[in-house]
Specification:
There is one protein chain. With 338 residues, the chain is mainly alpha-helical. Helix content is 72%, strand content 4%. It folds into two domains: 252 residues, no CATH class; 42 residues, no CATH class. The strands form two sheets. Strands 1-2 form a two-stranded antiparallel ribbon. The termini are far apart.
Length: 338
């Protein structure tokens, strides 16, 4: 039992790490490889669950399909929703549900083919149960939708829920919802229904506590690495494209406001330049000046008094006074009294 539990733990760590690592490469490779990975994990999850592969512990039965692969898928959808938005999440959910539907169809065809080949042919594929398959697919779809809704609900500003508690409650809520939906759909009316429900609740609690650190540290790491603020979306954003429309409108409005501010700034700058141009006229070039009277010769050869020439060629105006040196020379008595 100890070796089986150790193998299960190693498998879970490897699956969680693989999914989160694949998602961390989205900046360089996009999300195509991530969708391919979760599709493959979905197929493996369905087959291992149908085969009944499990690890028995005192009072708890851990299914490999749900403990390892389904939880890894939940983590994958979780981080895609948090960092990539509802549109990418809908693609991930469609991949999981689509593969979940295809696996029983392929299994049924293979069983039919084996039956046609003869009774002596070995069966490598577990038998399928339409009720269990239907309950599993419905529960998986509801779980993934509920995940996004619970995350947004707990993230409302008025609740002020810490990030770690928000992640834990969302993950645990999804796990327990899956227990209710799947167990009810697959086993209600059977003698073992209550026992299955109780045991699965305990096992999902253990799985949630085990998987939560992987989820929380990854969200914190990505948030710090890219410096992004986790967006608060409408609770039903996963079902509708409300968040994308709102975001696009917000970005468009911001761009319009930015361009208006830029245009206003340009207009202000142009107005300032025009004002400066009107206020300032620069005298350039060589000014021929009389060495004795200081008159200035213009381009037509005419001589003008210094003040008159400057007033004609600039916006400057002259007012007259007497400097101290001239006052002493021309008005010595007045200068002494001053």
């Amino acid at each position: 039992m100890d070796s089986e539990l150790l193998i299960l733990i190693c498998e879970a760590i490897a699956a969680y790490f693989l999914v989160l690592f694949a998602h961390s490469l989205r900046g360089r490779l996009g999300l195509a490889h991530f969708y391919a990975l979760i599709g493959s994990l979905t197929a493996v999850m369905v087959w291992t669950t149908d085969a009944g592969v499990r690890v028995e512990l005192p009072g708890v039965s851990l299914m490999v399909g749900s403990t390892v692969f389904y939880t890894a898928l939940l983590l994958g959808v979780f981080v895609v929703y948090v960092f990539d938005g509802p549109r990418a999440t809908r693609i991930a959910i469609s991949t999981i549900i689509g593969v979940s539907i295809m696996v029983p169809v392929v299994t049924m065809i293979l069983h039919w083919q084996i039956k046609l080949a003869g009774p002596a042919q070995p069966s490598y594929f577990p038998p399928q149960s339409l009720r269990i398959y239907s309950a599993s697919i419905f529960a998986a779809f509801a779980d993934l939708i509920f995940l996004a809704m619970a995350w947004e609900f707990l993230g409302k500003p008025q609740f002020k829920v810490k990030l770690w508690l928000r992640a834990l409650l969302t993950l645990l809520g999804v796990m327990w919802l899956d227990v209710v939906l799947f167990a009810t759909g697959a086993f209600v009316g059977t003698p073992d229904y209550v026992e299955i429900m109780t045991g699965t609740f305990v096992s999902r609690l253990c799985i949630s506590l085990f998987a939560f650190p992987f989820l929380y540290f990854y969200i914190s790491w990505q948030n710090k690495r890219y410096g992004m603020e986790i967006e608060h979306r409408p609770v039903l954003a996963i079902l509708k494209e409300v968040s994308e429309v709102r975001l696009e409108l917000s970005l468009a409005q911001q761009e319009i406001e930015r361009r208006k501010a830029l245009e206003k700034e340009n207009e202000s700058l142009i107005s300032s330049l025009k004002t400066a141009l009107l206020e300032v006229k620069t005298l350039r070039g060589i000014l021929p000046t009389c060495a004795y009277c200081k008159d200035i010769r213009d381009e037509d050869g005419q001589w003008h008094q210094l003040e008159i020439y400057i007033q004609r060629h600039s916006e400057a105006k002259f007012s007259h006074g007497i400097c101290q040196s001239c006052a002493k020379t021309h008005f010595p008595d007045l200068s002494e009294r001053m």
